[in-house]
Amino acid sequence: MAGPNLDADKPLRVVALGGGTGLAALLRALKREAGRSRDPWKLTGIVTVSDNGGSSGRLRDELGGIPPGDLRNCLAALTLEDSALSDLLNYRFRGEGSLAGHSLGNLMLWALADLTGDWVRAIRQLSGVLVTLGRLFPSTVVPVTLCAEDMAGRAYVGETAVGSCQPPLARLWLEPREAEPLPEAVLALLRSDLILLSPGSLYTSTISNLLLQELQEAVESSRSPVIYVANLMTEPGETAGLDLENHVAAISAFGRTRISAIIANAAPLQPDMLARYQVEGGEPLMTESDTILGIPVHRFPLLDPEAPMARHHPDLLNRAIREVLSRL
């Protein structure tokens, strides 16, 4: 498949799918391309909305609607670097009262959605205040519940429960099954030049969006290259014991999505950081293979040396994506 032309006259239309901190990290790496003065990329993030824990879960249970947490996290990632509003968006109330643990950005998003009666308009209005570089859409505005069943027949209901599952999974789906994706998200995929699957929790973030049939079909119909940016580490519970091939196989099986290339980390963790992860059951997600399930693997040093935890460095990830694009 011929890759998109980085030097084409028209803006490169890039769509990133995922959720949580993984999609935020990817958008943070890409926003410089959306903000440059010459030939800026047209960047779109499609965000999973199946979260049922923390502040988002409380708002969803008490007030209805979709959980705003992942949307808020991604909005913060797309703000200008010097924007103090990004910190305000992520502020969490302390103390013992009813606001304790709530994120101010979550409350702002929910309030705007309530005032306008439209989640897309709410996100657009808050994006305008924050001056974000790119646009965001929820994958659906239907409150959905992520469900799973493992190989032993144990059932898991809700994103929090699925996140503590015993992998590998036998089944993974969304309820209600007839939930429809947001039309704007489908259109963005159909018009895309490049699709990126973000790092993040495998079942609850990376694959979750692809469980919406029309969204998955839009990925296939787009004929755009699809690049999977792999996690840096496995996660206790959700992906314990799974290697990179297992991750790719799960995306293919449950997300029914072709992958054109894989970006994986090649930089080792510092021994003290590795030891901290291993105590919790996490392991580096690395490979020496040049292909996995017939898909080319591109290895780059992606770790942020200044981060206290394993995190993608935005500049290194940006460079890796551009390098892989040039090879497609």
What distinguishing features does this structure have?
328 residues; alpha/beta; Rossmann fold; 3-stranded antiparallel β-sheet; 13 helices; 40% helix
Describe this protein's structure.
By secondary structure, the protein is of the alpha/beta class. It has a single domain (13-327), classed as CofD-like domains (Rossmann fold, 3-Layer(aba) Sandwich), CATH 3.40.50.10680. Helices cover 40% and strands 16% of the residues. It is built from 13 helices and 11 strands. The strands form 2 sheets. Strands 3-2-1-7-8-9-11-10 form an 8-stranded mixed β-sheet, sandwiched between helices. The chain has a 3-stranded antiparallel β-sheet with strand order 5-4-6. Helix 8 (183-190) runs parallel beside helix 10. The longest helix is centred in the first third of the chain and has 16 residues, at 20-35. The protein is globular. 48% of the residues are buried. The model has no long low-confidence stretch (mean pLDDT 92).
What would the principal axes of the Cα set say about the shape? globular
Percent strand equals 15-25%
Number of strands: 11
Number of domains: 1
Largest beta sheet, briefly?
8 strands, mixed
Q: Any idea what the CATH superfamily is called?
A: CofD-like domains
Give helix and strand order, one letter per element, not per position.
EHEHHHHHEEEHEHEHHEHEHEEH
> Which CATH class is shown?
Alpha Beta
Structural class: alpha/beta
Please state how the strands of the largest beta sheet are arranged side by side. Answer: 3-2-1-7-8-9-11-10
- The radius of gyration computed from the alpha-carbon positions, rounded to a whole number of angstroms, is 19 Å
Low-confidence stretches: none
Task: Report the average pLDDT across residues.
Answer: 92
Q: If classified by CATH, what would the architecture be?
A: 3-Layer(aba) Sandwich
Number of helices: 13
- The name of the CATH topology is Rossmann fold
Give the CA-CA distance, first to last residue. Answer: 7 Å
Helix percent reads 25-40%
